[in-house]
Amino acid sequence: MYPGTVCSINTTQERTLLKPIAEAKIFSIQVGLPKTINTDETTDSTYRPWTTGFFKLPVDGRVWLGRDNLDGDGQADLHNHGGEDKAVNAYPHEHYAFWTERLGLENLNTGAFGENFTLSGLIESDVCIGDIFEIGDARIQISQPRQPCWKLSRRWHVRDLALQVQNTGHTGWYFRVLHEGFVEAGMSLRLTERPHPQWTVTLANDIMHHHTSDFEAARSLMDCRSLASRWKTTLEKRITTGTAGDNAARLYGPDISL
Asked: In whole angstroms, what is the distance from residue 195 CA to residue 59 CA?
């Protein structure tokens, strides 16, 4: 059985969860605007042109973090990406060694997973839905785990990469912005509030992707008040229909053929 929204964690457990947060930092910041990638820019002629904001470049110095995104950043598919619940895409730097070895790709630089913040000192089991952090004058809150899509696979020419990321739980997560401000690589993230210590990003991922027939767990997660509205809608539909739904379009896209 999964915990409900009432905190069931004891003080010792909470101190354990908070311990790694103290050393969390922004390792790097990346932004990028949507662009169309033509077939002659790839090594695979089976690709049709596609438009994406996935390609992001590192930012030197301070950058403004607004309510919807970082200055200079944008998304091509505004139905599935962006918005207040997905203002900042964050990914742990700790996962890069794992993916470099697993995929045999040596050019996995920060931003390779399309993230805005590459973070050090935090992974999915360390953080919870609703966690609020201060970064300088800015305040941000974890809204949901990232659900990887086919554009990640297309970017690296690995057909099932989105599925691999989902299955490993190395997904990263999204922040919403509670207070705007300037941010910069090297800044520390200071945890100021943890309203849902039972709802780690890891547990949320497990319920969404691996325990899809546990409707009690789905209802408990759906009731987490800090969870992004799109996740609440997905979980509500699962409970109502008694099915997990089909994620093939998100994971594989319209015409990937590697």
From this structure: 32
- Give CA separation, 83 vs 6, 8, 75, 210, 230, in Å: 28, 32, 10, 26, 11
Nearest to 143 by CA among 217, 210, 75, 229: 229
91 DSSP β-pair partners: 118
- Residue 254 φ/ψ region, left for φ over 0, alpha for ψ in the -120 to 50 degree band, beta for the rest: alpha
Q: How far apart are CA 245 and CA 231, in angstroms?
A: 13
Q: What is the DSSP string of 26-52?
A: EEEEEE---EEEPGGGSS-TTPPPEEE
Tell whether the model's pLDDT for residue 1 goes beyond 60.
no
Where do the domains of the chain lie?
A: 11-252
pLDDT digits (tens, 9 = 90+) for 32-55: 998 888 755 555 544 677 788 889
DSSP string, 110-167: TTTTS-SEEEES--TTT-BTT-EEEETTEEEEEEEE----HHHHHHHT-TTHHHHHHH
Q: Give the pLDDT of residue 43.
A: 56
Burial code (b: 16+ CB inside 10 Å, e: under 16) for 49-66 equals ebebbbebeebeeebebe
Structure tokens at 43: 């090594």
CATH 2.40.33.20 fits 11-252, yes or no: yes
Using CA atoms, how far apart are residues 175 and 188, in angstroms rounded to an integer? 15
pTM of the shown model:
0.88
From CA 24, how far away is CA 143, in angstroms rounded? 18
Distance between start and end Cα atoms, the chain: 40
d(Cα 117, Cα 233) in Å, to the nearest integer?
Answer: 26
